[in-house]
Each structure stands twice: as C-alpha cells, then as structure tokens.
Design a protein that fits this description.
332 residues; alpha/beta; Aminopeptidase; 6-stranded mixed sheet; 13% strand
C-alpha cells in the first residue's frame, strides 16, 4: 500500500463531528492481563525468509504460486482448515490477474469468529525506489507482504498449542499492491481504485454463506526497523473500541514505544473493503513514520524491502500484542 486516503479523510472528519469518534486517550485505564502464549519472533522471522526465498511473489508468477502453496501447507500444519478462493481480478490497465485468497480457520464450525488478515502479494514495481533504474523491478516485500503473513503463521502455531474457545479466520488477501504506478496515471486517469483487489473480491464474496465475524485486524508492514504504529484513522472510525483495547493492552504489556497512543493518518488498505463492503469492523496495524519522506518507512515500495531491514523486535511487539488481545477476549 498505499496512497493517502484524502477523499475519505475529509468525510471522516465530518463524520467525527457527529461524535462517533472519541479522543485517543479515553481507553480503559487498567486492563486485566489474561494468560497468553509467548509469540516467538524467531519463528516469524524464519517465515519471512522462507517467503522471500521464492523471490518476488507478484500475482500470477511462479514464485507467487509456490509461495501460496507454502502458506497453505504451513497453516494446515498448524491445524487450520484452509479454504482457497480463486478469482480473475482485473488490474487498472485491464490486465487479468489470477487472484488467490487463502483463508485458514481455527475452530471452523464455531459461529463466534474474528479475522486476522494481511496481503501476501508483492508490488510488481519498486516505484518509490530512490534510484530511478530500480523502479520497474518487483520488490521482495519482506515487510510489505511477508511480515503480516509471518505474524499470522506464528499466531496460528500458538493457537494450536493453546486453543481459543472461538474461531479465528486468518485471511491472506491477494493483489493488494497492484495499485497504479505514477507513470500510468495519465493513460489510465479514469481507472477505478486499483489497490486491494483481493480483499474487495472477498468482501463482496465471503468464503462462506452468511459469513460473520465480530471484528478484524489487518497487519500491513509489521516488521520494518524503526516502525511505530499510531492509531490509523479509518480504523478509529469503524473499529475504535478494538483500537482502544489493543493499543492500551500493548502499552500495558510493555510495547508503549511501538504503539503510541496517538492518531496516524488515514490509509487506503485492505481494511477499507472489509469495513465498508463486508460491514465487519476492522482495524489496520500499519506503520506511521513521522516527518519522514514516506510515513510507511524508508523501504516502502523500494528494492530495499528485504529481510535485513526487518527488526524481530517489531514483529514481537505486534504479534504479542495481538495475541494478548485474542487471549483476553477468550476470557470474557
Ligand atoms: Zn505496498
């Protein structure tokens, strides 16, 4: 991802006047911390390396197909029931893409469910690379794809060892990062929004009839060195109760430096169709680098988005905080 969500931002500000959105510091003061498994960052790091070893997993490539098979097998090995959703998606330039959403479910027959999701495809072009010669090179996407999947896989492993009483759907969305590059903006000026193709398809065609979940958590770029995760605006509008709970929990269990209790910008990301089309409140954990050329961090959509630029401490902060939310929820 993604460009700033400017049109939506204006609408959100208006809607916020109606009082639905509250201030950032009105979360629970002290939350009881329930027993929770330990999220192993090394295991998530290994999974980032595994995914990157396939090369750039651009939708439709052999690396993408093989990595998809790897993700399916890994989730199955952790006891998940896996549903695959394939669909022909259409890129901004009319190119047909063989989309593949992967849904891995714990406790699949339970009606009480939550969603953890991330995109698994890689951007086809490093169009924000500082070196113009690199801008048509596909990215390895250690952070901007592999990190979210890796955190989900490690969570699935921990949940298998310490089962939850409700069901979790880990959804790997395809073709999130096929958004139109700058050089095609003039030619395809009338193209509809070109990001988030797999999640939009899923939101319009959930993998199960009458599908429902209480809430969702999107993980996007959750391993980059130096990342801090401010409260993203679309998340606050649609899923503020969960945002407040997660950020305050993270602060309480020692990750205050990663989860500052302040607002970030609004972004166009896979949580938007989940909120707006599927109607499931979904927040986005996405980095917010202040006063930086890109708020998503220095490796965003560059050839430097490689495993060397992942910090396992960031994976740990995100993975442990989300796990804590799940196990706190389990004790309700
Ligand atoms: Zn991206």
């Amino acid at each position: 991802m993604k460009k700033y969500f400017l049109v939506m931002a204006a609408a959100l500000l208006c809607m916020a006047c109606g009082g639905k959105q509250s201030s950032v510091d009105d979360g629970p003061d002290t939350i009881a911390i329930e027993p929770c498994p330990t999220f192993e960052a090394d295991s998530a790091m290994q999974s980032i390396n595994d995914q990157c070893a396939f090369g750039p997993r651009v939708t439709g490539t052999e690396a993408h197909r093989l990595c998809g098979d790897y993700i399916v097998e890994k989730f199955k090995s952790y006891g998940c029931a896996v549903t695959e959703q394939t669909a022909e998606l259409v890129a901004y330039d009319g190119q047909k893409l063989p989309g593949r959403n992967i849904i891995a479910s714990t406790n699949p027959d339970c009606m009480d469910r939550i969603i953890i999701c991330a995109h698994w495809d890689c951007r086809p072009w490093a169009d924000h690379d500082p070196n113009p010669d690199n801008r048509k090179t596909p990215i390895l996407a250690a952070n901007d794809a592999a990190s979210g999947v890796a955190v989900m896989l490690e969570m699935a492993r921990q949940i298998q060892a310490s089962p939850l009483k409700y069901g979790v759907d880990f959804i790997c969305f395809d073709a999130e990062d096929w958004g139109m590059p700058d050089w095609d903006e003039e030619q395809y000026a009338d193209a509809i929004d070109s990001w988030c193709l797999g999640s939009t398809y899923w939101a319009m065609n959930p993998h199960k009839e009458n599908y429902a979940a209480r809430y969702g958590i999107l993980l996007d770029m959750v391993g980059g060195r130096g990342s801090k995760f401010a409260m993203e605006g679309v998340s606050r509008y649609y899923a503020d109760t969960v945002v407040q709970m997660l950020w305050h929990l993270a602060n309480q269990i020692g990750y205050a430096s990663f989860f500052p209790l302040k607002d970030g910008g609004q972004v166009q990301d896979d949580h938007v169709p989940v909120n707006q089309i599927a109607g499931i409140p979904c927040l986005d954990i996405i980095p917010h680098f202040e006063n930086a050329p890109s708020s998503f961090g220095p490796t965003w959509h560059t050839v430097s988005d490689t495993p060397e630029n992942i910090d396992p401490a960031v994976l740990k902060a995100v993975g442990q905080s989300v796990l804590q939310l799940l196990y706190n929820d389990n004790a309700r």
